[in-house]
Amino acid sequence: MHPRVSLSAISSFSWTLDEDLAFYERAGITCIGASLAKLEAAGLEEGARRLRDAGVRVSNLIGIGPFQLDNPGQWPSQRDRVRRAVDAAEAVGAECMILTTGPARQLPWEEAADALEAALTPVIEDAHSRGIPFGLEHTNSLRADVGFIHSLHDCVDVARRLGIGVCVETNACWAERGLADTIRAGVDTFRVVQVSDYAIGTTSTPNRLVPGDGDIPFDRILGQILTAGYAGCFDLELIGPKIDKEGYDQACPRSVDTLGKILSNLGA
Predict the structure, then answer these.
(1) Domain with 247 in it: what CATH number?
(2) What would the pLDDT profile of 14-51 be if each residue is shown by its tens digit?
(3) Distance between CA atoms of 125 and 103, rounded to whole angstroms?
(4) What's the number of domains the chain is made of?
(5) At what angle do helices 75-92 and 109-129 cross, to 10 degrees?
(6) What's the pLDDT score for residue 264?
(7) Taking CA 178 as the corner, what is the angle to CA 173 and CA 180, rounded to the nearest 5 degrees?
(8) 8 near 35, Cβ under 8 Å?
(9) Residue 252 lies in domain
(10) What is the pTM assigned to this prediction?
(11) What φ, ψ does residue 195 adopt, rounded to 5°?
(12) Pair 29, 23: CB distance under 8 Å
């Protein structure tokens, strides 16, 4: 497995933590992105212990949030969940925590950004005190239920405002205007880069593909990210009917191999 490739637990979405751990062992997966939901399903402390004991590198912990930005009354309980996630991230040695913003609903974009800052600042301070960085993820505009930031450019701006990092979702930004400029200007904020492919003509989400099976120009985009100086992991986040049809046992190792070859060819 290429040392800069990570396999997100989202890629085996319907499997339990135990099924994931058994798969990692038989497939030789040594670096993963952990799922907060799967750890919670196993009992957060027990799940974290089992993941830590498996000896895999944890490039990130995903599934933090989202906040209901238009309902401040819900923020305290949502902050408590994030704090529990910080505990889990610390326990498994996660290199960063990935979160989406939560929906803006009826809020204007600018007011949603203000609400995100107010909701998140207390837990950011807690995570920073323990040396665990956040990566804010931008989302496909069809997923307004989980986030209101739909471009990498805007994500970098908001992350700088909050003093946190960025999760680059290539599936959501690959056709973005000025992407190369955004990468060069924002690379210092990048905490993890998510990778999966997309076929032009797909009108549903999530409906992702193994890298190389779709139309995203990974040689160009990942090359730009590497040239800009990014030194972290590239996390495979595969989900959707094509992945389910192929089966996790096939799609995940094929993705790990393909992404590893792309990175090696780019000199990573």
Answers:
(1) 3.20.20.150
(2) 999 999 999 999 999 999 999 999 999 999 999 999 99
(3) 23
(4) 1
(5) 40
(6) 98
(7) 80
(8) yes
(9) 5-265
(10) 0.96
(11) -130, 130
(12) yes
